[in-house]
Design brief:
The chain has a domain at 2-80. The protein has 9 helices and 11 strands. The chain has helices spanning 2-16, 18-26, 48-52, 65-71, 88-105, 139-149, 158-169, 190-200, 291-295; strands at 113-117, 130-134, 153-157, 180-184, 203-210, 214-219, 227-228, 233-239, 247-253, 264-272, 281-285. The protein has a 7-stranded mixed sheet with strand order 2-1-3-4-5-6-7, sandwiched between helices. Strands 8-9-10-11 form a 4-stranded antiparallel sheet.
């Protein structure tokens, strides 16, 4: 099923997205092969710099260009040079992907959830017992919100969770502890995982996502490795350099949408466990600057 979907995305891109048509032709790709049985490895990897080098309208599917400009699906390309325009279908896929991952790592509907993030916040969160807290308010405001919300599931960027954990450890009178903690946005090291487990007496999961793609994969408490979402993404790993056991993470969004991302270089590095079936990803370094940390054997993620 994904092979059929992938082929359709390639056909649509070569016909309706000027960026891909020009990018692939410049790389020497025989565009006529795309209509038959082209393999992804024949196509060049796309980096953010490649996308930024062309006008925003050339990165958008021509069939959806008017709707994107009229409805401003995300934010105007004029105000943000690399904002991904999202239609309603893409937004819905992202939200359901997030909810399904929450359920998979241990969330039960009806539990109190506190999410440390940044606005805008969705409406109606109170009806599902979710509390959104603006991380920009500072550590004290987040800690106060935590003591009031008494969440059973706590979600937020690793740096915010670490600060909240330290505040909790420094406030022995605060007895409430969540059942599940979900870290995101940054590399979750062994040391930080141990801190979160100690401070909250909770199981810890990790969500890996990108602003361009939404949630891509996640770790389940107690299990080693990251669970990817093959129905939504085609994931590849390419060598990060000779003699290096790290690999670059390359993702193709099978959802398509106004601005398809095909063989998109995430700028993140991963380590796979080649001794296990399927060679699962067991470490993810958030962005290329994580190279040094990932090269350190004890800097494990999951």
């Amino acid at each position: 099923m994904n092979a059929i979907r992938l082929r359709q995305i390639l056909l649509d891109a070569v016909e309706h997205v000027p960026f891909y048509r020009h990018h692939w032709r410049k790389a020497g790709v025989d565009l006529t092969r795309i209509s038959s049985a082209v393999h992804l490895e024949f196509l060049p990897v796309v980096r953010k710099a490649d996308l930024l080098a062309c006008p925003p309208e050339q990165r958008i599917d021509e069939r959806l260009l008017r709707a994107v400009l009229r409805e401003d699906c995300a934010s105007s390309p004029a105000t943000d040079p690399f904002e991904i325009p999202l239609d309603k279908q893409a937004l819905s896929r992202r939200r359901w992907r997030f909810v399904r991952a929450l359920l998979d790592v241990g969330y039960s509907p009806g539990e109190r959830v506190m999410l440390i993030t940044e606005p805008p916040f969705p409406t109606g969160a109170m009806f599902v017992r979710w509390t959104y807290v603006d991380r920009r308010g500072g550590d004290t405001a987040v800690f106060t919100a935590y003591t009031r919300a008494r969440p059973q599931v706590l979600y937020g960027p690793l740096s915010s969770l670490v600060q909240l954990a330290n505040c909790t450890l420094a406030s022995p009178e605060v007895k409430w502890r969540p059942r599940l903690v979900i870290s995101t946005s940054e590399q979750l090291t062994d040391a930080n995982r141990a801190l979160l487990e100690s401070a909250f007496s909770a199981r810890v999961a990790d969500f890996y996502g990108l602003s361009e793609l939404g949630l891509v994969g996640y770790s389940i408490p107690g299990l080693s490795g990251y669970k990817l979402i093959p129905r939504d993404f085609h994931v590849e790993t390419l060598s990060a350099g000779k003699g290096c056991d790290l690999e670059r993470l390359i993702v193709t969004d099978l959802g398509g949408g106004p601005m398809p991302l095909i063989r998109f270089d995430t700028d993140d590095l991963v380590r796979r466990d080649r001794s296990r079936r399927g060679a699962p990803i067991v470490q993810i370094g958030r962005h290329m600057e994580s190279l040094i940390r990932l090269l350190t054997p004890r800097a494990a993620v999951a």
